[in-house]
Amino acid sequence: MAEATDDSRDIEKLYEYGEKLNEAKDKSQNQKDYEGIIAAANGSVKAKQLAAQLIPKFFKHFPELSEQALDQHLYLCEDEELGVRVQAIRGLPLFCKDTPEHLAKIVDILGQLLIAGDNVERDAVHKALMSLLRQDVKTSLTALFKHIGSTDDRNAEDLSAWESIREKVLCFIRDKVFPLKAELLKPKDEMERHITNLVKQNLQDVTAAEFKLFMDFLKSLSLFGQNAPVERIQELVEIIEGQADLDAQFNVSDGDHIDRFISCLQMAIPFFMRGASSNKFFNYLTKQIIPVFDKLPEERKLDLLKSLAECSLYAKPQDARQLLPSVVQLLKKYMVRRKIEEINFTCVECLLYAFHHLAHKTPNATNSLCGYKIVTGQPSDRLGEDFSEQYKDFTERLSTIEELAKAMNKKLTQGMAEHNKAMAAAKTEDEKEVIKKQKQNVTAGLRSCNNILAMTQPLHGKAPSFIGDQKISLSWKEVTKAAATSGAGSGAAGQKRTAAATNGSGTNATKKVRGAGGLPNQLVNRAFEGLSDTRSGGRGRGWRGRGSGRGRGRGRSYR
């Protein structure tokens, strides 16, 4: 009973302090009343809730008590009672209404409070942050992005809590800020530039998915829209180059780096299409990666060759001349002189495609490499030298790969007929799905072989014509479109498919289907390994690991 009486007395005092301050013309003369409100924040639950309303309401009138008042209010934000925390959080934006100098600190606090576990509390944090973003978007975004930076200056003890906060801040920016960019980023030019700079400053420690999130956002800004000058598009490529770590020595045993390079190269290709320079990527390929190509894991070799093929269209003549010798050497590795059973036609397709597009940019470079007689009038034509051995070797390899591709085409066509029979005989949806995937692989294989034949045919003459346009559609590009609608490639993007997914083996139902209409030779599957991979700039590989702490986490670094 005594406690209830004390509680009532505290509430009455708070109302009294509030009334005096409301009525006072010069509120700064009522410092004792405001101090009483601050002290009452240590009282009962009801007293704390009322104090959480009054402290920010009269905050601007007592600058000498600002630190004390703000600290007391922050304790209320961490109170054990949900009602107190929610009321205190709702009051945080009021501290900045007339005293904007506190806005960065309040946004920083709200950013830490995003890890709140209760929905009501989290909703209050979101609304408070949105209120401050609308008041001063520049200062608010700057404060929020401080939670996304590098971990280098954080000790192990703080790291887990920081990771959790960082994750929630990223989610808030993705879900609440980015969708409202048209409303929040005003004036548009100034604020789009500001948020671009914030993104660029905070990419040192991002995962693959986070980097893709930021790049997709930057692409959506008017700053980098369809009418943007080439120098702005180059700025995006430079951001990607930094993430690809092109200034570092390549370590062939560092799987993370090769994954990052391939992902970033894929991400940069649309910007090469818009005129940005691909020089740094091609230079790194030529000097750092191609020389150790044989030491790369097999699945990474295929991914790299696909990326090389896709970006070869956008090589400048000087880059093409530098890279072409390495491509010819790799072509000779895959285009064997004698017929063998096991050959990866997808790799041959990639390299022939890259060869055509690079040679189209610098045709006379092929004279010494392949024995051609292309006249440009430049000393680099080297027409007085004898390269007949190179020509004989190269054209023999072309003939051999043509014969192998034709034989594979025949085998694949037979396999397709058997798959059609198997599909008619299949009884379950699982069986049909397996056969459907096998048919997609066969279709892709046929495309690959047909592409190879289309690209070798023009190369037999002494002065061949090189394909420099996009009339050849890369086989996996078309397969990706088909697979997207059928659910093929259910694994993480860019990862090597399992035998069950690629070859149709691994379950009893699958084995029955393959017995009814499987491909005539297991080598067919290996010949086109990776064709049905769904590939994208993001790749789904996490370039670095993150811990992800959970829970409220008391004692956060507010102050």
UniProtKB/TrEMBL annotation:
Residues 391-429 form a coiled coil. Keywords: Coiled coil. InterPro entries: API5 (IPR008383), ARM-like (IPR011989), ARM-type_fold (IPR016024). Residues 498-510 have a biased composition (Low complexity). Residues 541-559 have a biased composition (Basic residues). Residues 485-559 are annotated as: Disordered. One of its GO terms (biological process) is regulation of programmed cell death. The keyword S-adenosyl-L-methionine does not apply. GO terms for molecular function: mRNA binding. Pfam families: API5. One of its GO terms (cellular component) is nucleus. PANTHER family: APOPTOSIS INHIBITOR 5-LIKE, APOPTOSIS INHIBITOR 5-RELATED. This is Apoptosis inhibitor 5-like protein API5. It comes from Sesamum alatum.
